[in-house]
Write a structure and sequence with these properties.
The protein is an all-alpha fold and 352 residues long. It is 74% helix and 2% strand. It has two domains: 273 residues, ABC transporter involved in vitamin B12 uptake, BtuC; 39 residues, no CATH class. It is built from 17 helices and four strands. The protein starts with a helix and ends with a helix.
Length: 352
């Protein structure tokens, strides 16, 4: 019984997700000790998470792409495309706001399908395809904004709505409604997406096929897996994920702009890699990505609040954390490093 308990404890402690939990706990301890009253305000913490919720959402779906051995750096441009399509269809074409949202999501899915087709069926390098896609979809978003009577730099605003009591309803409720007047509805949606993505990747046949393609594409094909479709589908999912982020961001800021979310790319890739997903494919975790995204958000929230770090300089500590943590993980997983550490422990015990 004791051995089983020790084995289970060892299995938990050695998981990368446990390390991420420890990093988050350390952040709370450090920032809480620096300024407990300012930092430990639930409303402020939730608000900070809500500010970066688009990055958190997209990183969940990019995890699928990277597990197959690909990469997606076009998602941030799809956010802007989704936003401006919603604005133009609602404001200038006169469509119902929900119909505009649906068509924008379909557009984003088609954008992901185009890139996925080029990667899976034409064997073009994912980096090249998605880099080109980021310029292509940003350009299309700019062209779409030119169809509006509202100047592109202003953005389309005035979305419905508020009722007579001043409460957010309809489309704007997606961005501003708070559960129990504390928890933003976008965080609730994000948690639902975590559960959905976790089931899809770790509990479904589709998820097993995604991992198999990432580990060995030829072996997957010999097993009867349509690897091309699996790879293409992950890019479609990322396009839809970026669309969901674009819808929520547009509803939150009450503005549809072609360049909305244009700075998200680095943070998205950082969250996925820090979450334990290998860039070479075959390994990844939805929970790991979600925890890594939370660690980044807490760092961005705590540093300016407790230590007065300028928001313009926040990329530096995040970059340092990424390099140190990922380097330590790779060293720990290296057989030579593990063997060297065991030898050191043996020497210390022998001296004692």
């Amino acid at each position: 019984m004791k051995n089983k308990f020790l084995q289970k404890t060892k299995d938990i402690v050695t998981k990368w997700e446990f390390v991420l939990v420890m990093i988050i706990a350390a952040e709370f301890i450090i920032f809480g000790a620096a300024d407990f009253e300012k930092f430990m305000r639930p409303a402020s913490i939730f608000s900070s998470i809500n500010n970066y919720i688009s990055i958190c959402i997209i990183s969940l779906f990019v995890t699928f792409v990277m597990i197959t051995g690909g990469i997606d750096i076009q998602a941030s441009s799809i956010v802007g495309l989704t936003s401006i399509v919603i604005g133009v269809l609602w404001s200038d074409a006169g469509l119902n706001i929900w119909m505009a949202v649906l068509l924008a999501i379909i557009t984003a899915g088609l954008a992901g399908a185009l890139s996925g087709f080029l990667v899976a069926y034409c064997n073009v390098q994912p980096m090249v395809v998605t880099l080109g896609g980021s310029f292509l979809f940003s350009g299309i978003a700019l062209l779409v904004s030119g169809l509006s009577a509202t100047p592109a730099y202003q953005g389309i605003n005035g979305f419905p709505g508020k009722n007579e009591a001043g409460e957010f309803i309809a489309f704007r409720a997606l961005g501003k409604y708070k559960l129990f007047d504390v928890i933003p509805i976008q965080i609730v949606i994000y948690v639902a997406l975590i559960i959905l993505c976790y089931w899809l990747l770790h509990k479904s046949k589709y998820g097993r096929k995604v991992f198999l393609v990432g580990v060995n594409r030829k072996a997957a094909e010999y097993s009867g897996v349509n690897s091309r479709w699996i790879i293409m589908s992950t890019y479609i999912l990322t396009g839809i994920g970026a669309a969901i982020a674009g819808v929520l961001l547009t509803a939150n800021v009450d503005s549809a702009k072609y360049n909305l979310g244009s700075t998200f790319t680095l943070s998205i890739i950082t969250a996925v890699v820090l979450g334990g997903t290998l860039s070479t494919g075959g390994k990844g975790s939805i929970i790991g990505t979600a925890l890594a995204a939370l660690a980044i958000v807490i760092l961005r929230y705590g540093l300016p609040l407790c230590f007065g770090v300028s928001t313009q300089n926040l990329d530096l500590p995040i970059g340092i954390m990424l390099v140190l943590v990922v380097s330590a993980r790779e060293l720990a997983s290296n057989p030579r490093t593990s063997s060297y550490i065991r030898k050191l422990f043996r020497k210390e015990h022998s001296i004692e």
